[in-house]
Design goal:
Distance between the termini: 45 Å
Order of helices and strands: HEEHEHEHHEEHEEHEEHEEHEEHHE
Keywords: Metal-binding
Largest sheet: 6 strands, mixed
Number of domains: 3
Strand content: 25-35%
Subunit structure: Homohexamer.
GO molecular function: metal ion binding
Family: Belongs to the GTP cyclohydrolase I type 2/NIF3 family.
Number of strands: 15
CATH topology of the largest domain: Udp-n-acetylmuramoylalanyl-d-glutamate--2,6- Diaminopimelate Ligase, Chain: A, domain 1
Helix content: 25-40%
GO cellular component, one term: cytoplasm
């Protein structure tokens, strides 16, 4: 198996187009055309993890956090990032990261957190904009169903919980084929009138090439008239954080004890209790203080995330409980997510989970 097949599978689940502008997800070291000897899954690609990959004959490390986040001007081993780069390159270890793109997909990092608490009715807390496109095309009525089905198969036509969504209008098209044309209908040099269906479908921007391929391969015309328009609509399946409900309301202290247990953390930092039961819970893996206002607006009774600064705890305004479980603790189940993605696609392939505990934070 090529490394390309493995990383393409992860990218199909969490497209690189979904990462934030500041991020560096993707293949950081190595060659996608190398034969994969094995893959090691981890949260952080540390020196110890690279050594583990060498020992376990894995030439691909899949991590959540990009080991190279900003630019490297020198690689002389003066810090752990440079040492990882040297060791990985020296031993032909490819390193791939799925970071904020994995955070932003509906079934990504925050969903793994939600599963720990058995939340129901979950939705994206802060859906992203500018990720949807609309295709308009015109096709002879007799060929509309074939084309429509092909576009659906390519990933078009999903709106919320609905699939195979399209709009179809009937009208009349005209054209005149030139001398070099090979028209599907009509005669060269004569204006032709054809009863056509105007077909409209929405699709995610990352599937544009697939949708165009389906359009061109299944449309009967030699020249396919079509428009692709960028939409400002929010994409409800992609964005930061989640909000959902506990199956039954919980008393606050009992809820916090459950959070500590389920996230295997030595410490939960939290704001003053409000004396109200917890029912609606917002979550965000990693540093999530930027979503606090969204959590409040969503009516959350508690917001579980990490890396809150002292003064940011005041921003709860007694409207919810902030529960800071720690950065590593909020994202530790990402390894399980990687494992699920790969074994579902390649049931006979055995990715390895790193045995290295990469959390740099300890608790007394």
């Amino acid at each position: 198996m090529k490394i390309r097949e493995i990383i393409n599978t992860i990218a199909a689940f969490a497209p690189l187009q979904y990462q934030e502008s500041y991020d560096n997800a993707g293949l950081i070291f190595g060659n996608a055309d190398w034969e994969a000897t094995g893959v090691l899954l981890t949260l952080d690609a540390t020196e110890a993890v690279i050594e583990e990959a060498i020992a376990r004959n894995c030439n691909l490390v899949v991590a959540h956090h990009p080991i190279v986040f900003g630019g490297l001007k020198k690689i002389n081993g003066s810090n752990y990032v440079e040492r990882v780069a040297i060791k990985a390159i020296k031993h032909d270890i490819a390193v791939y990261a799925a970071h904020t793109n994995l955070d932003n997909v509906r079934n990504g990092v925050s969903d793994m957190m939600a599963k720990r608490l058995d939340l129901v009715n979950c939705r994206v807390l802060d859906p992203k904009k500018d990720l949807l496109r609309k295709l308009y095309t015109f096709v002879p009525r007799a060929d509309a169903e074939k084309l429509r089905t092909a576009l659906f198969a390519a990933g078009a036509g999903h709106i919320g919980g609905y699939s195979e969504c399209s709009f179809n209008g009937e009208g009349t098209g005209t054209f005149r084929a030139g001398d070099s044309a090979n028209p599907y209908v009509g005669q060269i040099g004569q204006r032709h009138t054809e009863e056509e269906t105007k077909l409209e479908v929405i699709f995610p921007a990352n599937l544009e090439q697939n949708v165009l391929k389906a359009l061109l391969e299944n449309h009967p015309y030699e020249e396919v008239a079509h428009d692709i328009v960028k939409l400002e609509n929010t994409y409800q399946q992609v964005g930061s954080g989640l909000v959902g409900q506990l199956k039954e309301p919980m008393e606050e202290e009992a809820f916090l004890r459950l959070v500590k247990e389920q996230f295997r953390t030595g410490c939960v930092r939290y704001t003053p209790l409000r004396g109200k039961p917890v029912k609606t819970v917002a979550l965000c893996g990693g540093a999530g203080s930027f979503l606090l206002k969204k959590a409040r607006a969503a009516g959350a009774d508690a917001y579980i995330s990490a890396d809150f600064k002292y003064h940011e705890f005041f921003d709860a305004e007694n409207q919810l409980i902030i529960a800071d479980v720690g950065h590593f603790e909020s994202e530790q189940f990402t390894v399980e997510l990687f494992y699920h993605i790969l074994t579902e696609k390649f049931p006979n392939f055995a990715p390895l989970k790193s045995t290295i505990h990469t959390n740099p934070v300890n608790y007394l």
